[in-house]
Amino acid sequence: FWTNLESALQTVQSVEMNKAEVRATIMVLKSTKRFLATIALENNTNLESALAHVQDVCIFLKPLPVDKIVTSQTFGNLAEAVDLIFGHLPKIRFSKNYGLERLAQLVEAVSLTFASKLSDIYKVRAGSLSMNYSTFMT
Is-above-0.90 flag for pTM? Predict the structure, then answer.
C-alpha cells in the first residue's frame, strides 16, 4: 500500500502539477500579480507534506523482512525470520509518522502470520513423523 501511494504521489507531483493547463494557470496568476492565489494554488495541495509522510513510513516498512516468514519451510528458517523482524522493530524510533499503535497492529499481524506458518510447517513435519520408518526412507 505505502509503496503504491508513494509512487502515485510522485506521479502527481511530477506529471500532474507540470501539465500545461496547471502551468498556464500559474503563469496567468503570476503575470496578473495574484501572488496570494498563486501561493494558495501551489501550497494548497499539501502534496509535499503527504509525500514526506509516506516516504517516512516507507523508510521503516520497506526493509521489514515479512516475506522471510511467509517463505520459511523449516522451524530454523522461521526462527531466523522472526529474529530479523523483531531486530528491525527498534528502527521505529527514526520514524516520525509511524506511531506505537500502528506498530502494535503490525506486531499483531506478524504474529498471526507467524502462527499460521508455524502451524503449516508443523502439519508437514507431523505427517512425516507419523509414518513408519520404511515408508519414510522410500
Answer: no
